[in-house]
Amino acid sequence: MTGWVGFDLDGTLAEYDVGGPYMGPRSVGRPIKPVVDVVRSILAKGGRVKILTARVSSGGEDAATARKTIEAWCVENIGEVLPITSEKDYRMIELWDDRAVQVLPNEGLPIQDVLVDALKLLVETLDSGNLPSGLRYNIESFIDGCRDRNLTVKKVV
Ligand SMILES: [Mg+2]
Question: Of 20, 50, 96, 100, which is least packed with CB atoms within 10 Å of its CB?
Answer without folding.
Answer: 20
